[in-house]
Write a structure and sequence with these properties.
Blueprint: E1 2-10, E2 16-24, E3 53-57, H1 59-64, H2 66-69, E4 77-80, H3 81-90, H4 92-102, E5 109-112, H5 130-149, E6 155-159, H6 163-171, E7 175-177, H7 179-184, H8 217-226, E8 229-236, E9 243-248, E10 256-259, H9 261-264, E11 272-277, H10 303-311, E12 318-325, E13 330-335, E14 345-350, E15 358-361, H11 365-368, E16 371-379, E17 388-397, H12 401-411, H13 421-424, H14 436-441, E18 443-444, E19 451-454, E20 463-469, E21 475-482, H15 493-501, E22 505-506, E23 511-512, H16 517-523, E24 531-541, E25 547-558, E26 561-564, H17 565-573, H18 580-602, E27 612-616, E28 623-628, H19 633-656, E29 662-665, H20 675-682, H21 693-702, H22 714-723, E30 730-733, H23 760-772, H24 785-818, E31 822-832, E32 836-841, E33 846-851, E34 866-869, E35 874-877, E36 880-883, E37 887-895, E38 903-910
Helix pairs in contact: 3-4, 12-24, 18-19, 19-23
Domain PIN: 53-167
Keywords: Cytoplasm, Exonuclease, Exosome, Hydrolase, Nuclease, Nucleus, RNA-binding, rRNA processing
Family: Belongs to the RNR ribonuclease family.
Length: 919
């Protein structure tokens, strides 16, 4: 049956446009009652409902109570198309979770396309709001199911917290109940009560605190349009949880500082907020104080400190007047053991220091003390010091390595669940081999001296190299990259999952793959055990590393050797080795040094960060030793040719697809970002020029030259500080950005092509490159620049979260390594704050804070003994001067006294400061 609706629309030019919308209705849509999607005899007992029944939740129940719906006892649930559509429109994360449980056959959730069923379709009434229309759609579908179930003496139960919808349903003879009433009466699952999301009025509040009332969305939109308010994302400081910054939308906008509880006004990290600027005489500066949440959970910025800041030239400062969009998610942490465990109201402390405590109700406190748990925020009323939330699930015992790994993965939103069956169905068989017809399409490069050079233990090898000399004296150099796009076709479940994950995440003891292991470690990995499909970038060069020609091709290769950096270095250095692979490596190494020197001359930066590698016990997988990673010539050799390939591919795809090329840019940081670096260098008599990346690179090179009274490691520290002055590099669509430059590499154009096994960006680039050389066809999403930019935004987020997760994994393993140990070690001060210094310990790649306002036992000694000079990057503590880059000796120990934030403690040993240093 066909329903048609005709709309007459007047265009800007004054023409009348006739739009016909057709809606097809069918009488053969499966209602799920055949025993395949839903059980014939629902087993969930409920004291409120005497008969067997099926559950039909409305949209708000799905949006607010997904933790209840995901519980294992919740079965035989009918999800209407109306609810799916509204959920998708209002919350992408909830929609994804809803799709996941509807695809789980064990859950017995059935999606009914009620808007296309002739039995449940209803026309919209005149002046009926879309919300009322959707509610009526849901009630009509509930009535339809009641009629279908009447012969079986079963019922359809409408779950809704909307009072008007509930009352109308009861008037129409339907069985409608609130989620709270339904869950409270479920037999045998009392823990479900803890999972209920609470409304604002559901819990008592503390009227001793009163936050400013948030303005309505309409007022915020009017204020933003007029320029009175600024809109942007709130980023809470990692060092001070009572301070944040908002970067307003629009080019040339300056960051706005937000300080203190009242000015933050219940905004949580990453919320989209509306900010009102304060008068200029109230502008402030970011605090120099490090607030340690584990020791000072209720600390505020002191009035005297705030006044000190105002006396200086402040930066734009404002206050939050409303929330445009909440970014609340589930948070990992622990239940505070305040009061009696028999109480039902408790405080939850998140592991993420930038998130406030959350008040929850739970009847399981005795079981949950000492456990890592997950809690979701539901609301934050004006008269409550803390937001209100509900318990989601327990993860395991605090301090257990598996539990802590779960925490860091959840906290950084790393998708780590096993790949779904739909994804696995996209894979070829494990014994797949290259078909003859595919071999005929490709260049056969199996005879070349191709090899791979990677870190120890690497199984996802996605790049190989070769070099051979031609008879005319020129050199043929090739970079060969795993052809992952041969196996991952656009639009498949495998492609969608890889796009969502964005990147492989490398933790100290495990790898969270972007694609299934059959591809990442077998069929796509360019190991030296057989033929592999590759995408090759081949240059003809002279001996001065100048490119004569470049070409790209789909190929089949056979690696002659899979080596570590150390093994490749040994071959290069061993004069007795003269096989084709070794000769090729020596040639590549020579060219790489020329390429690097040329890049440096052009202004490319060589920046440092402390990296460590853990050695783990083969049985317990606990860290037993750690070392700082050593860099060899072969590391640089591989890096140079990957950079060159990425630049060559970027030029090609941007030339062929000027509006939709996937590129990577590194914005130039403003000069003010370098103030800390420049001041720190001056304390050692070093002058850094920061006008261009080339001048900065030359200045950093100059700082490496030996000088009196300057420790040689200071040049490394300067490079580490320089890294922290930079913006992050980001992926973008070429049609939506005019500045393509990569500041750190001093490259006019750049992309990622060389790691498609572990980065989805490279898969997108491979598809563009294949289309540009006629090796594959284009498709609509490949040429849609808005769609490409959305994917790039997700990739930027996933890349950033992967970096944070990796750092958190190093921190966790460092803590485990130092359990039960107390070690004195050399370190260097890299940052001086008003109440502390941050120290880097090169041997362990470890950075930590030495507090100067407390003694070695953690007791506060105040700041009256401290004289801080920000411009000189120094502090005097009890008459002892500490400056940036000073060499110190610190005592390293593991502190488990705070069960939530177990950490590495650093105590000053040398120089000796009375009342502060450890004995």
């Amino acid at each position: 049956m066909l329903k048609s609706k005709v709309l007459m629309v007047k265009t800007r030019s004054g023409k009348i446009l006739k739009i016909v919308r057709e809606h097809y209705l069918r009488d053969d849509i499966d209602n799920g009652l055949n025993g395949v999607d839903l059980d014939d005899h629902p087993m969930l007992e409920n004291d409120l409902i005497s008969s067997e029944h099926y559950i039909i939740p409305d949209t708000n129940v799905v949006l607010k109570q997904m933790d209840v719906l995901e519980h294992s006892c919740m079965r035989n649930v009918i999800i209407l198309q109306t609810v799916m559509r509204e959920t998708k429109h209002r919350s992408a994360p909830i929609y994804k979770r809803l799709r996941t449980i509807t695809q789980n056959k064990d859950k017995k959730f059935h999606v009914f396309t009620n808007e296309h069923s002739i039995d449940t379709w209803c026309e919209r009434r005149p002046k009926e709001s879309s919300n009322d229309y959707n509610d009526r759609f849901i009630r009509v579908a509930t009535q339809f199911y009641n009629e279908c179930l009447s012969e079986r003496n079963q019922k359809a139960v409408l779950l809704t917290n909307d009072k008007a919808n509930c009352d109308l349903a009861k008037k129409e003879g339907l069985l409608a109940v609130t989620v709270e009433d339904y869950v409270r009466n479920i037999v045998g699952f009392p823990e479900l009560l803890d999972k209920l999301a609470k409304a604002d009025e559901a819990m008592e509040v503390d009227k001793s605190i009163s936050y400013p009332e948030h303005l309505k969305l309409s007022q915020l939109q009017t204020g933003i349009k007029s320029g009175r308010f600024k809109q942007g994302k709130l980023n809470i400081s990692r060092q001070n949880y009572l301070e944040g910054k908002v970067l307003p939308q629009g080019e040339g906008s300056k960051e706005i500082l937000i300080q203190g509880r009242m000015h933050l006004n219940r905004a949580v990290n990453e919320d989209i907020v509306a900010v009102e600027m304060l008068p200029e005489n109230q502008w402030s500066l970011p605090s120099d104080v490090i607030l340690d949440v584990s020791v000072q959970p209720g600390a505020e910025i002191s009035e005297s400190h705030a006044e000190d800041l105002k006396k200086k030239h402040g930066i734009p400062t404002g206050k939050v007047v409303g929330i445009i969009k909440r970014s609340w998610r589930s948070y990992c942490g622990i239940l505070e053991s305040f009061g009696s465990p028999d109480m039902t109201r408790h405080l939850f402390t998140p592991a993420e220091r930038r998130i406030p405590r959350i008040r929850i109700e739970t009847r399981q406190a005795k079981l949950l003390i000492g456990q890592r748990i997950v809690v979701a925020i539901d609301s934050w009323p004006r008269f409550s010091k803390y937001p209100q939330g509900h318990f989601v699930k327990a993860l395991g015992e605090i301090g257990d390595k598996d539990t802590e790994n779960k925490v860091l993965l959840l906290e950084h939103d790393v998708a780590h669940e096993p790949f779904s069956q739909a994804v696995l169905n996209c894979l070829p068989s494990a014994n797949w081999s290259i078909p003859d017809e595919e071999l005929r399409k490709r260049e056969d490069l199996r005879g070349l001296p191709i090899c791979s050079v990677d870190p120890p233990g690497c199984t996802d090898i996605d790049d190989c190299l070769h070099l051979r000399e031609w008879t005319d004296g020129n050199l043929e150099v090739g970079v060969h990259i795993a052809d992952v796009t041969h196996f991952i076709r656009p639009g498949t479940a495998l492609d969608i999952e890889a796009r969502s994950r964005g990147t492989t995440v490398y933790l100290c003891d495990k790898r969270i793959d972007m694609v299934p292991e059959l591809l990442s470690s077998n069929l796509c990995s360019l190991r030296d055990d057989g033929d592999r499909l590759a995408f090759s970038c081949i240059w003809v060069m002279n001996h001065n590393a100048e490119i004569i020609s470049t070409r790209f091709c789909k190929s089949v290769i056979r690696s002659k050797a899979s080596m570590t950096y150390a093994q490749a270095q040994m071959l290069i250095d061993d004069a007795t080795q003269n096989d084709d692979v070794t000769i090729g490596l020596r040639g590549l190494n020579k060219l790489a040094k020329i390429l690097k020197a040329r890049r440096t001359l052009n202004g490319a930066l060589s920046l440092s960060s402390p990296e460590v590698r853990f050695h783990v016990d083969s049985e317990t997988h606990d860290p037993i030793d750690l070392e700082t990673k050593k860099l060899r010539d072969t590391n640089s050799m591989v890096e140079e040719f990957m950079l060159l390939a990425n630049c060559s591919v970027a030029e090609k795809i941007q030339k062929e697809f000027s509006d939709c090329a996937v590129l990577r840019r590194h914005p130039e940081p403003p000069k003010s970002n370098f103030d800390v670096l420049v001041n720190a260098a001056r304390t050692r008599g070093l002058e850094l020029s920061i006008n261009t990346s080339r001048e900065l690179a030359l200045s950093l090179d100059e700082a490496e030259k030996p000088a009196e009274n300057v420790h040689p490691y200071i040049s490394v520290l300067l490079r580490i500080l320089a890294t922290r002055c930079m913006y992050q590099a980001v992926y973008f669509c070429s049609g939506l950005e005019s500045d393509f430059r990569h500041y750190g590499l001093a490259a006019p154009i750049y992309t990622h092509f060389t790691s498609p096994i572990r980065r989805y960006s490279d898969i997108m680039v491979h598809r563009l490159l294949a289309a540009s050389i006629g090796a594959d066809s284009t498709f609509s999403d490949l040429l849609n620049k808005q769609e490409i930019q959305q994917i790039c935004n997700n990739l930027n987020f996933r890349h950033r979260m992967a970096q944070y997760a990796q750092r958190a994994s190093v921190a966790l393993h460092t803590q485990m390594f130092f359990r039960g140990k107390m070690v004195d070690e050399q370190g260097f001060i890299i940052v001086v704050r008003k109440n502390a210094v941050q120290v880097l310990i090169p041997k362990y790649g470890l950075e930590g804070t030495v507090f100067l306002d407390r003694d070695h036992q953690g007791n506060a000694v105040g700041t009256s003994n401290l004289e801080y000079n920000e411009d000189a990057c120094e502090i005097v503590a009890n008459g002892v001067l500490l400056k940036v880059f000073d060499e110190v000796t610190v005592q390293i120990s593991h502190d488990a006294s705070n069960i939530q934030h177990q950490r590495i403690n650093l105590h000053l040993m040398k120089p000796k400061i009375e009342g502060i240093s450890a004995p």
